[in-house]
Amino acid sequence: MEYSVAMNAYRKLCTEFYDIDKPAAPPEAYAFYRAKAEEAGGPILEPMCGSGRFLIPLLREGFHIDGSDGSPEMLDACRARIEKEGAAASLAQQMLHEIEVSREYALVMIPEGSFCLVTDPEAAQEALRRIFAALRPGGRFVLDIERDMGKPAGSWGWGGRWVERPDGAKIICSWLGRYEPEEKVSYSLLRYELIQHGALLATEFEDFNLRLYGLEEMEALLASIGFCEIAVHRLYGPETPSAEDETVVFEARKPG
To answer: In this prediction, what percent of the chain has a pLDDT beyond 70?
Structure first.
């Protein structure tokens, strides 16, 4: 089945910007997912692994972890970083709703709200079905999601910031967007520009869209796939989410 899924994000300039702007996983987030990896006691899959902010330090610590991502540029960056570490990992270029694996995993993890990049509802369901199939009986699925806070429709004008490469060139990221509450989707248009010695060398545009979820909605979606022991808590903590928490963590188990 074909789904309405666009993949024009995380290309060359975006990947460069991302790796300069976010060279490592946030310490609190990494500590949380590392603890989940330790608890799992078996192989780990990180779909949507990007350039390896979580995957590579876990690999460095001796965890058996594989990764996949829909962006060839992100995977190239991840492979280069793994090679620099003198390590090895299995990486596959796959959209989340297309993942196919050759073994079962004790843990599937999707940090940093990346699951919300799948905005097509049918593609999201298929992605969850494939994640469920990738888990061994008793395996766990852990992910962050951006929460639907009931905001009204709205739009925002151009904003932006820039990072500097080691060669002195600057990559500028500018954005504008809108929120559609009926779809629960935040639509953003991003523009990346490479500037060096006052000259514009390259430009990329990308759509960066996020599907937000209500807590009961995500719980019902996970249950419909077959997950059990579904729990939600505050970001990287054991507490129940408050009404103000815009990002939360879901955990679920495959029966068995």
So the answer is: 97
Q: How far is CA 117 from CA 69, 139, 185, in A?
A: 12, 24, 10
Residue whose entry in the numeric block shows the structure tokens 């505050």? 234
**CA dihedral over 30, 32, 36, 39, signed as positive or negative:** positive
Residues 53, 68: Cα–Cα separation, whole Å: 13
Q: For residue 98, give both structure tokens.
A: 């297309």
On whether the CB atoms of residues 190 and 171 are closer than 8 A, the answer is no
Residue 1: predicted pLDDT? 52
Q: CA quadruple 9, 11, 17, 21: dihedral positive or negative?
A: positive
Give the pLDDT confidence score for residue 155 in this predicted structure: 94
The whole model's pTM is what? Answer: 0.94
- Count how many residues are written for the chain: 256
Alpha helix ranges (H) inside the chain: 12-21, 27-40, 55-60, 72-85, 121-134, 215-225
Picking from 154, 122, 115, 108, the residue whose alpha carbon sits closest to that of residue 251 is: 108
Closest CA to 251 of 169, 131, 152: 131
The CA–CA distances, whole Å, from 220 to 32, 131, 201, 228 equal 24, 16, 48, 11
Q: What is the pLDDT of residues 69-78, one digit of tens each?
A: 999 999 999 9
Measured CA to CA, the distance from residue 69 to residue 77 in angstroms comes to 11
Q: What is the pLDDT of residues 86-97, one digit of tens each?
A: 998 999 999 999
Q: Which residue has the tokens 């937000």?
A: 212
